[in-house]
Amino acid sequence: MNIIENAWAYLDRKVRERYPLPTNPDQLWAALEEEWRKLDLGYVRRLYESMPGRVADLIDAEGLWTDH
Q1: What pTM did the predictor assign?
Q2: How far is it, in rounded angstroms, from Cα 60 to Cα 68?
Q3: Which GO terms describe its molecular function (predicted)?
């Protein structure tokens, strides 16, 4: 339900697509910062706007697992 998990998964995917891959913590941090800055605000907005549906699904599932 936490939309930051979607954003982290997106960043993880983008960093892993880089060539060459980061080989040390400083390179990894730089890659994450660069990909974060390139993050499409439309994607973030869609994640944010999905929250009412996610909450409704969670209520319907009585707090159990949902697909979101």
Answers
A1: 0.74
A2: 13
A3: nucleic acid binding
